[in-house]
Amino acid sequence: MIRLYKSPTAILNNLHEIREGTYNTARCFQADCDDLMTFNQALSAANLSAKQRRILYMYYIEELNQSEIAYILETSQPNVSMILSRGVRAIKQVYKNWERKELNECT
């Protein structure tokens, strides 16, 4: 499949670096800005619950592990893992829908 967007998982994994502006020479500032804007649009379009957003923030921005998040939220680590996975899956689905729509418009 043709990829029109950078993988949301890759963006999530580099989100802290992108937001903090700690770049290595192999990455492009403008591309990171574009990726971040697109990601924020996808985040809005994914219609995540407040809990999903909070867990994504704690995991990818605050860089807490799942056990730490579970302790803070007074829940179990498997529950955090499930909520995190569903949130990421919802964001990925937004990207897939966008790609499918854009590819259909090209044909």
Automatic annotation (TrEMBL):
Alphabetized UniProt keyword annotations: DNA-binding, Sigma factor, Transcription, Transcription regulation
Protein known as: Sigma-70 family RNA polymerase sigma factor
InterPro entries registered for this protein in UniProt: RNA_pol_sigma-70_dom, RNA_pol_sigma70_r4, RNA_pol_sigma_r3/r4-like, WH-like_DNA-bd_sf
Annotated CDD domains: Sigma70_r4
Source taxonomy: Bacteria, Bacillati, Bacillota, Bacilli, Bacillales
Pfam families tied to this protein: Sigma70_r4 (PF04545)
Keyword Transcription regulation attributed: yes
Single biological process term from Gene Ontology: DNA-templated transcription initiation
Statement: the UniProt record of this protein carries the keyword Ion transport: no
Spans through the membrane: none
GO molecular function, one term: DNA binding
